[in-house]
TrEMBL record:
This is Amidohydrolase-related domain-containing protein. One of its GO terms (molecular function) is hydrolase activity. Residues 202-376 form the Amidohydrolase-related domain. It holds the Pfam family Amidohydro_2. It comes from Ancylobacter tetraedralis.
Length: 377
């Protein structure tokens, strides 16, 4: 099963670009964490992600598996950053990178830059909150101008994209009114936010009315272009209120998108794996991945993958790395996923629950076929 899964090409339906500057130890470790707060005398290598990074990435840089962190970082620094990217991202066996460009996009490679550096097909997924913030920075006269500017810019950007994405869970939590707001209400909220931006009391979009407007506008565009709306769920940022990021709290919005035939792809889903699998089972339009948590759980990833596979229909699961910044996270995402999937399917075969043929078809579906069905790639 392992060699069959290793031979499959993957569609990474949610990832980010890599940084191209040389990284010293502190800079490298900062990118190994979702909420980097260094603890004196401790290292980011001393956690599950650090263990699998040294196990699997060290040989790609010419070191033995389980190299020491200082040797790893020193060897990496001696190589040109482009060479690091080419070796690590270029050997993932991924065919398509679907890249979220809305997070710290000035610090990382664009989709074109990723294609140039790796030879892989890289396409854009547009983050709707980032578009609203971009338009606000242009200094619209009032809330109505903000709304119109957002609608026009999102429509334009959606044309070249393969999907749209929202981080509503991080900005307001899922626990908000899930009906589309009226125009007057949106314009009033826009007036208030622009004033707060001007006096420095707000720096980013957190207003639920404006985000609801963005979500329904995004839903309409996804319906038109026949591609998914991605929703970040659970683990992935430090500044979230986790209990209110349970995706089942967002059921009314998901149900509305089901009526519009808009696929909703739930990203990461940790620790709400069973809640996400439940939504994938009961809604025709819901897809799930475990994304970033594969790398962060490292040696325990087979158990995490097994949990979401308890209930998720085989035609509803996707692969993503959610790699950001480090080329290592792209490489590991694929490696850890392949190992975990082989482990889960091997167990099912050994217990006589499925045939090898069935296991291979499940692996192909999750690796790329499901993504190819819902994304225009
Ligand atoms: Zn992400």
């Amino acid at each position: 099963m392992q060699s069959y899964i290793d031979s499959l090409s993957l569609i990474d339906h949610h990832c980010h670009g890599v940084v191209t500057r040389p990284l010293d130890r502190p800079a490298f470790e900062a990118l190994m964490s979702e909420g980097h707060k260094p603890v004196a005398g401790c290292t980011q290598f001393d956690k599950p992600l650090g263990a699998v990074l040294l196990r699997w990435c060290a040989p790609v840089l010419g070191l033995p598996p389980h190299a020491e962190p200082e040797d790893y970082v020193a060897t990496r620094l001696k190589l040109a950053p482009d060479e690091v990217t080419r070796r690590l991202v270029g050997s993932t066996g991924v065919s398509n990178l679907l890249i979220d460009t809305g997070h710290r996009s000035d610090a990382i490679l664009t989709p074109e830059g990723m294609t140039h550096a790796t030879g892989l097909d890289a396409r854009e997924v547009v983050r709707i909150e980032a578009i609203m913030e971009e338009v606000a920075r242009l200094g619209p006269a009032d809330g109505a101008a903000l709304r119109k500017g957002f609608d026009a810019r999102l429509e334009e950007r959606a044309k070249g994209a393969v999907g749209l994405k929202s981080i509503v869970a991080y900005r307001t939590t899922f626990d908000i009114d899930q009906t589309p707001p009226g125009v007057a209400e949106v314009d009033r909220a826009g007036d208030a936010w622009l004033k707060a931006l001007a006096d420095g009391s707000s720096r980013r979009l957190e207003d639920p009315v404006l985000i609801r407007h963005a979500l329904f506008r995004a839903g309409e565009l996804c319906r038109t272009h026949r591609y998914p709306l991605q929703l970040h769920v659970g683990f992935g940022d430090a500044d979230i209120l986790m209990p209110k990021c349970d995706p089942t709290v967002f059921t009314p919005f998901i149900a509305q998108m089901e009526k519009w035939d808009v696929p909703i792809t739930l990203l990461h889903c940790y620790p709400f794996l069973r809640e996400a699998a439940f939504l994938a089972e009961v809604f025709a339009n819901v897809y799930v991945d475990i994304g970033v948590i594969q790398n962060f759980t490292g040696p325990s990833a087979p158990r995490v993958l097994a949990e979401i596979m308890e209930l998720t229909p085989f035609y509803k699961q996707l692969y993503s790395s959610d790699a950001f910044g480090l080329a290592e996270l792209h490489f590991l995402g694929a490696r850890v996923f392949r190992n975990a999937l082989a482990s889960v399917l091997h167990d099912w075969i050994t217990r006589g629950e499925i045939t090898v043929k069935k296991a291979e078809s499940i692996a192909r579906a999750i690796a790329s076929e499901n993504a190819r069905r819902i994304y225009p790639v």
